[in-house]
Amino acid sequence: MKRWFSSVIVVFLFATMGRTQTVYSNLFVVNGLGESVSRIDVSEDRVWNNVFTTDNVPQQAKIQGDSLYILNSISSTLQIINLSSAKEVKKIDLGTQKNPWDFTFCKSAGKIFVSNLMANSVSVVDVASGAVVDSIAVGRSPEGILAANGKVYVTNTAYNASSYSYGQGTVYVIDAGTRTVVDSILTPTNPQNIVIGPNGRLHVVCTGNYGNVPGVVVVVNPGTNSTEDTIAVGGTPSSITITSGGMAYLGAGGWMDYGHVLKYNAANGTVIRSDDHPILTGKGAMGVLADDAGHVFVAAFSDDQVDVIDTSVDSVVLRYNVGDGPQNLALWKTTVSSINEDDLAQGAPVQFRLEQNYPNPVRARAIGSNETQFVFQVPEEETISLKIYNLLGQEVLSLFQGKMSAGQHVFKADLAGLHTGLYFYQLRTNTGILTKKLIVAP
Question: For residue 206, what are the contacts with CB-CB under 8 A and spacing of at least 6?
Fold first, then answer.
């Protein structure tokens, strides 16, 4: 049955005067057990598994430009895949008995720095020649690595494989130009990851010993190489991502009933979701990655899925089934120019397009808190309809029906009357029909 309710809708021509915007084309997922890569189209909600095959035990993946870099731990290789052609263009041999763990792009040095867990070293890789050009001795069992401001920071876990214990954790500071260690920073137990937070501070994730020593995050001032704060999040956090709004999310395992994701305010250190009250995801929350649209993606290793957290409500709103043992994530960004009035005046071709509504998910709470916008373009003046349907195919809301001029348009609507769940919205014209998903979250 069709339902009608009061909704304010604003219609206007979308003129951006040539501004550019960054969009996320695809999310690439490294499946550690399957030794494969899955691809998720985040705008179309589609998944392709086994799009690339990795070497033995893929550990990390990062994207630079149009290239996907995959670090393989046991085979000790760095694969480089061109995403535009979907082909592997280079494979770099990193040497034997190194167990490479993580890597970072150092712009100032024009090189890639790789941490080697077993070799207690950092390799310097020249991509152009496809070779390791230097090796830097660091602390015991290094894992996390980060390049910033002409320096490379390496987290040394000090893990002793013979006694299954952890020594004094440290972060070594390497001058990227001279390739020498210039300082050492003491940390709590088992520092595994490091990122840059607000005000340029370094956030070092210390996982603890998986027993009586819980996880913490230490905030380091890179100017003085001194600790400014210790954030007691608890649990066993290992991965971290910080949103554009300054909120830190940590993948913290969770291997029994649910995965655990923790959260704190990266600007002031306030813990929002500790291990006593985590965000629940699929089991084995490992890699976490934030986009600029209010989502955090979580690789749920044990459940072979990627969960999507809506950061406005801190709950999972989408799940994607991927390959065996997802553990690391990378977003491919592209920059596009919006259509502007000059383009239309000069007769530039306008396509029949329907964009993903934003924000999505929409919050199903008080009126005024769940406004979303629908963007579409039509190539010529014609009669259109824009409607929302439930999963049974029943129309629940007609946003617009009537004549619309050629060009790009935006509708804004308050969807307070919709219950939580998954819906579809459809643009129908003489040119054709386009449909996309819409989520109403609690």
Answer: 169, 187, 188, 189, 190, 191, 192, 215, 216, 217, 218
pLDDT 10s digits, 233-275: 999 999 999 999 999 999 999 999 999 999 999 999 999 999 9
Together in a domain, 74 and 167: yes
Specify if 2 maps to a domain.
no
Total of domains in the chain: 2
Say if CB 297 and CB 307 are below 8 A apart.
yes
The mean-pLDDT minimum among 38-47, 76-85, 170-179, 317-326 falls in 38-47
| Single residue among 292, 307, 335 that ends a domain in this structure | 335
Q: How many other C-beta atoms lie within 10 A of the C-beta of residue 225? A: 16
Instruction: Mark which of 283, 311, 335 sits at the end of a domain.
Output: 335
Instruction: Give me Rg for the CA atoms of the chain.
Output: 24
The DSSP 8-state label assigned to residue 200 in this structure reads G
CATH number at residue 166: 2.130.10.10
Distinct helix (H) and strand (E) counts, the chain: 1, 40
357 and 301 co-located in one domain:
no
State both tokens at 97.
């008995």
